[in-house]
Amino acid sequence: MPKASSPYYVLPATKAIRRDGTVTHVRYGKAVAEEICRRIAMGEMWFKICNTGRLPSYTTLYAWVRKYPDFAEGYAQAREMAADLRADRALVVAEESTAATVQSDRLRVGALQWRAANGAPKRYGSRASAADREDAAPMREIVIRVRQFERLIGDDGRAYTREIPLPRDDEA
């Protein structure tokens, strides 16, 4: 086995926990990735579950998203699932609101909506197009035609206006 000072020294498979509670090393594995995705899908926030149990640090998650495409896909799906969960929770809080709790419930609903929009911007974001939403009504097309007029003076000296014909899009 190479010495610790050797460039070929491999860290042990188990992680070491420092005095401040941070983890020095966690190897990527399918079981760890599934655990992370499952917990995020259940609505847990990453900053609360990182460095706990056998989970890696906060920054390691983003390194794994860049390095492992299968993990990136599972992580994105877990975030969408968590967004659906938060949207459902917002609805429950709004429905159970009373006159006495309306102020605090409004804050909770707003926070849940914001987190849902960040987790699934195509579905819950403010800039989400109607075509991206599953429950959206069909889009309607609005056509605006611009008309242009000119002012003329006739042979009799009277002023009048006439429309200037513009080429249409379908004629051009």
How does this structure look, described?
With 172 residues, this protein is mainly α. The protein is built from six helices and two strands; from the N terminus they run H-H-H-H-H-H-E-E. It has helices at 30-41, 46-49, 58-67, 69-95, 102-119, 121-124, and strands spanning 148-153, 159-164. Strands 1-2 form a two-stranded antiparallel ribbon. Helix 1 (30-41) runs parallel beside helix 4 (69-95) and helix 3 (58-67) packs across helix 4. 10% of the residues are buried. The model is unreliable at 8-13 (pLDDT under 50).
Low-confidence stretches: 8-13
* Contiguous helical run count: 6
What is the radius of gyration?
30 Å
Shape: elongated
CA(first)-CA(last) distance = 78 Å
Number of strands: 2
What percent strand? Answer: 5-15%
Helix/strand class: mainly alpha
Helix content: 40-55%
Main sheet record: 2 strands, antiparallel
Query: Taking strands numbered 1, 2, ... along the chain, how are they ordered across the largest sheet?
Result: 1-2
